[in-house]
Amino acid sequence: MATNTLLIEGSFDELADELARYIDTIRKTVSAASATPGAEVASVHAEIAQLLERLREKDQSEEELTEEQTKEVQNERTEVLKKLVLAAPVLNGAPEKEITAAYNLLVYLVRQSSSVDMFLPKICAFLAKPMPSSPLHGPSIALSILATIFNTLDADDSSRYHVFLAIMAVIRSTSSALAFEALKTQLSNQLPGWIESWDLDEEETQKLHMSISDAARAAGDAELSYHHLIQALHAIPPAEAASTQAREMAVRSLTTALSLPFVFDFTPLTSSDAVQNLRSTDASLFELLELFSTDDLDAYEDFVKENPISSISALASVKTISPATTTSSASSEAPSVETILQTKMRLLTLASLAAKAPSRSLPYNDIAAALRIEREDVEKWVIDTIRAGLVEGKLSQLKGEFLVHRATYRVFGERQWGEVQGRLMVWKQSLLNVLEVIRSEKEKFKEAASAAAAPTHLLSLIAALRDRQKFDVAKKRTEERDLHRSALNSRRFDYTESPTHRQDDPRIRLLQPPTKLRQGQPSMPRLRSSGWYHPQVRPHDLPSMLP
């Protein structure tokens, strides 16, 4: 809930004087409309006039108040508020448009005192009562005022607890489903934090959950009502489990659990000390709880023969809810307790059969025999059990069996642990077999991969040898060419090496020994730095000319 702030101007004595005069006016109006008009009506303003005068004098004094004077002011304010709050119920008879403003002013004055916890629970109790002047919109006005009070208080203020109880009381008295729906989200998200911050004891926690349970039931939310009823049951201290109040709550919780069509888990009840004490005070009711916790349809019918449900007073007076509230039927008529109990026991019996099935398969004939129904109705009951969340599986019409995927254990003891151990051993052996198959297939795959890779490896070797041969041939040719070139370079002629040459050698007839150039004679052909050069002789022609 968001935090609200009340904006009211004026000093305490001025506002208290105004509220007292207003209360006197409403009292006179109500008295005039009553069966005894003209009766003397006490004046609240007259009772607090002297106190207000003293407060006004101290408020107007320019001197700073001492600690003792401050305490006096607080005590005088408390006395004024006692008179105002005592007369506050008359505000429920104020005109519809003035009720909210009048209560807001009263709450503001209470917040100015040092005794908020003394007055606020009483104001909340007044708001939880009917408003004669507004029978149609009274609950909405009350909820609005209470919500404002709740939000003006600090989150950890324990006074919020009393405001919350008043809100639940208004919802319960009006059966306002709309108002309760608006609170459901906050209940699920913030209620645990509220309980912790308010520092509630066990009795207060129990009262809180009971108020929510009653409001939820009045609003038509049976599931949430049962949830908080169990919370209230577990809030009972072990030392008080044998008290009359604890017995009444245990009986109510047990009969509610048995009569609600959607409750199949009875563990929260069997774990309660208050419920266990019913073994001696309400033996038949407690025996019925044990039947629904562990036994089957046969044991239940044997019990009913000896102890008819109508003979159990706690169950005979239970009002069942309409199946239309659930999803099990389209009928709007509420079934009898006997019908609900028998239906629930059949579903629980089927769940036990599914949990005990060694092969995880239930033939239709076995189900029909255990539930005492016709074979044609087996599938209907299996589907209802699946909808209840007790089992999961698949129906096989061809084989006439129900294949169980999951089943809920109603109790979990030594026998159930043994079944779990046996199934775990079966699963372990199955996993070992799977691992062995995987290892075997892995080895086969490796061998097949090696055999398939052998020809490919040989071809790779052959290709590598061929590449090596090609490389060697190319390398050899390169070496021969390099040797040939080096031999050629070593046998080149240089006209400076030999002073005389054979004049008739055709290979060098074009080469003339260097002569001294006379002035005016044409120059010799240019010589390259690598040797000699002649335009009519190309270097690549030399090998054929040399010996």
UniProtKB/TrEMBL annotation:
The keyword GTP-binding does not apply. The keyword Aminoacyl-tRNA synthetase does not apply. Residues 221-409 form the PCI domain. GO terms for molecular function: translation initiation factor activity. Signal peptide: none annotated. Component of the eukaryotic translation initiation factor 3 (eIF-3) complex. This is Eukaryotic translation initiation factor 3 subunit M. It comes from Trichophyton rubrum (strain ATCC MYA-4607 / CBS 118892) (Athlete's foot fungus).
